[in-house]
Amino acid sequence: MKSKQSGITLIGFIVVLAVAGFFAYMAMKLVPAYSEYAGVVKAMNQMATEGVDGKTLDQVRRELIRKLDFQYVDDATISPSDITMGQGASGNELRVSYDKEVPFMYNIDFLIHFQKSVPVQGNVAPAQ
């Protein structure tokens, strides 16, 4: 009685390995951008708990950028113009909106748009 073999062939294994390698390479390129975004969120939450009462928008921007340095956020990632204040549903909000371009391979890049807003305590002083 002959037994029937089952399993994957060498060619099939190489194809599966190539697909898994492609997605692993893509994850290696994208994970740092998302971990950097986690640092941005953490710095924004710190600003929200401290409040912004009596500070100008420029002071808020400088303080947030200083906090971003402690979170290992690259200086080229967020410019001061990406940091804004506005009215939200629950009062004043600190908003950060930026784009991150991640080179992938050859002429293919990933463009990731990050946007976060957190409610802050206090009012921003007018610019002097």
From TrEMBL:
Transmembrane segments: 7-28
InterPro entries noted in UniProt: DUF4845 (IPR032314)
Pfam families membership: DUF4845 (PF16137)
Domain of life: Bacteria
Keywords: Membrane, Transmembrane, Transmembrane helix
Protein name: DUF4845 domain-containing protein
